[in-house]
Amino acid sequence: MLRVGVKYCGGCNPEYDRVALVEQIRERLEGKASFVLPESEGVDVILTVHGCRTACADLSGFRGIETWAVTGIEEGEEFVREIIEKEVHIDAKNEK
Which fold has domain 2-95? Predict the structure, then answer.
């Protein structure tokens, strides 16, 4: 199961409900991904959740780890599609 570390921005100018979006993503990826603190061991990807397009959260602590930036609902949808697509490809490869 994919381990996703969730890093929120400071929330100084949120244009959408960041926490609600992450909860929706978590529900849609149930059984495919677990959501953990970004500092957790064994994190596969960091989901950075920015409240606006400025996307100014400090990500310097995550060098060498794949990151996915979300600045709105549309990018949250893209993240879900990407994870589901990756799982399909991994499943197909394992069946060969």
Answer: Rossmann fold (3.40.50)
